[in-house]
Amino acid sequence: MKIQSYSIVIVGAGLSGMMAARTLQAQGFEDLLLLESASVVGGRMASKTVGEGKFDYGAQFFTIRSMLLKEQANEWLKKGWIKHWFGEPYGRYTSVDGMCNLAVRISEGLPIKFEAEVCSIAKIKTGFELTLSSGQVIIAKSLILTAPAPQLKVMLEKEIALDYGELPYLLTQRFYPSLIAVFQLKNPTRWESSGHLDDGLPINIERMVDHQLKGISSIPTVSVYMRGPWSEEYYDKADDVIWPRIMEQVGKHIHLEDIIKKELIRWRYAEAASVVRKPFLDAGLIHPLLIAGDAYLSPQDQAGRTRLESAFLSGIAAGEELGRRLQDTVE
Asked: CA-to-CA distance for 190 and 188, rounded, in angstroms?
């Protein structure tokens, strides 16, 4: 299998990876490649269609606190990609036809290799050697990694000591999983107009979303997000153990006799249990290795938690830093 070489490789085509790539392209860097283990872009900007029903099952919306995202969101609004869903003063914005489709639009023009799972990363004289699960080897002079910390530790620890630069932060990061129950219903829910509930719910439910009221499904389709600690406790249990625990909690908001279909979705690394107050991590190597993602926040970040905006800003910050360092090398 032929070895491929690039000046820049970005691991992960979620929002952080895509924004890093867009930032580098804007600076004139074209010899780059994104590696995505899935068959679609977006990471947790995920949507699914089942029959006539459609639902988002990762991020449901994003809020705006930074000028960078405000300017970008205004462009997306003008293009008709997003809409204001509900909420003030920090409005909740969402894709007009599913969060995955917003990710696809953001990815247009980016060089992405799909179903490219990185198994290991080794430091070599000319940069880095990435080995994919297919056996293919890719050489990169510089790297931006955007996968969750537990996955990065597996990629790096075989060949690269985790004591370089700021890499020790990876050892302290823990992620909650997420269990999401999805229901297709015979009749509308009759919830409030937005279709979003996060108040007055059972203690183990974080939020519930009616995707018909949200405007992306033609039939009543509801997703129920279980909280991180509860999801962690039940994540590895069998479905027939999990479902009764969920059903006993949703009955107040869903008529159980209306359920036509149900599906359980698992996210292994859904939300960082704690954040790092840096916009990205720097391994401090001669050949740059930066780590970005929604768990990395600038010290000035007011929200103080992981979200789509933090992924957006982290990707841009990492892209700007890598571009600056590569430009300094050229000069």
From this structure: 6
